[in-house]
Amino acid sequence: MLRAVEACKEGMSVRQAVRLYKVPRSTVVDRVNGRVTHSAVSGPGQLLSKSDELSMVRYCQYMASHGHPLTKSQCFASGTSIRRERDPNTKPLSRTGGGTSASITMWT
């Protein structure tokens, strides 16, 4: 996406950039025209900070390398525990995303 936007700013047509980089035309146009910033992302906000997420990944890898891989339930519990350290009133993570719980998506 970034390459397509840069190419347009350097004189390439949007049509050429879209074909070359295989990205959506409307997104390139919005970014070239300044309607959407480079750092803008769609979707729900991140529930864990990047550093907390990295710590959790390292812990999961450590446990797996020592013969004790974590289950999904343990991952959710770890994520909730990390969030509760930051904010004791935080809602628990939920696999379904419904109700009042914060949601997180886990793919298998």
Automatic annotation (TrEMBL):
Residues covered by region (Disordered): 79-108
Entries under InterPro entries matching the protein: Homeodomain-like_sf (IPR009057), HTH_Psq (IPR007889)
Superkingdom classification of source: Eukaryota
Protein name: HTH psq-type domain-containing protein
Molecular function per GO: DNA binding
Start and end residues of each HTH psq-type domain: 1-39
Organism: Synaphobranchus kaupii
Alphabetical list of Pfam families matching this protein: HTH_psq (PF05225)
